[in-house]
TrEMBL record:
This is Probable porphobilinogen deaminase. Residues 2-198 form the Porphobilinogen deaminase N-terminal domain. The lineage of its organism: Archaea, Methanobacteriati, Methanobacteriota, Stenosarchaea group, Methanomicrobia. It comes from the Archaea. Tetrapolymerization of the monopyrrole PBG into the hydroxymethylbilane pre-uroporphyrinogen in several discrete steps. It comes from Candidatus Methanocrinis natronophilus. HAMAP family: Porphobil_deam.
Amino acid sequence: MGSRGSPLALRQTKTVISLLEARRIETSLAIVKTKGDQVQDVPLHMVSGRGLFVKEIDDRMLSGDIDVAVHSMKDLPSKRPGGLVIAAVLPRDSPFDVLVSGDGVAIDELEEGAVVGTCSMRRSSQLRRARPDLVIESLRGNLETRLRKLDEGRYRAIVLAEAGIERMGYRPRYSVLDPERFLPSANQGAIAVVTTRGRAAEAVGEIDHLPTRREAEVERVILEAIGGSCVVPMAAFARLQGGEILVEAEVLSLDGSRSIRVEGRVPAEDHIKGAVELSRRLVDMGGRDLAEEAVRNVGKV
């Protein structure tokens, strides 16, 4: 079992280990330091390369050193090495963003000019759209480091994923950001279990949660169609409702002043085809053009 060494990554990996060992599948743990872990003093979008938190683990899997790896699914690039498969997706935790602060203030109640920390281009654009008066500053580090920086007074508030806070059992004060204004990142709240093809994939497949997998796959189809990366401010959120999946997706300009958004329903049994059709709508409306603009101008905002 391969994992990053952060407390959250280890907590997620140990959850998977427990599920596998309950099925009499023996495991051992290997901690891998990724490029994203090693480069902590610059914003993520300024670090070259895709898959900053997964590439080294992928390489060790492809070389045969590791059989299984556990990831926050939103960290996985939409294009994956051919020898690897997402063998299981765990039931999704909260997909929502939260505004964490000393007093749990809501986004619309923040003082004018308040400093808000985030390392996400999507969150930055959405914050600028909702509150152009705020000062958005980069925030790097694992969950514990980000919360410590907030406690030290470097930021008035910070934006985090609710799922990570809940998995670690932390209890900071926060307000949940309205998902209509702050549409979540593709795959946020989902944990992916990656393996090489063959026996490992078959064994891990026993813990796959089909409803979450379908939601996640819809979001990933849209992500790939737009060319989403850590530089592109885009969101995709799919929710299974009966025999259909309700899908919302958007691409924003870096300053948050412009956005392109689509909504639709796709059949759960043919969700990939439906996601492709919806992603074409987003592209035709100019979503990919806006994404390419973001890539060109990322250093100017």
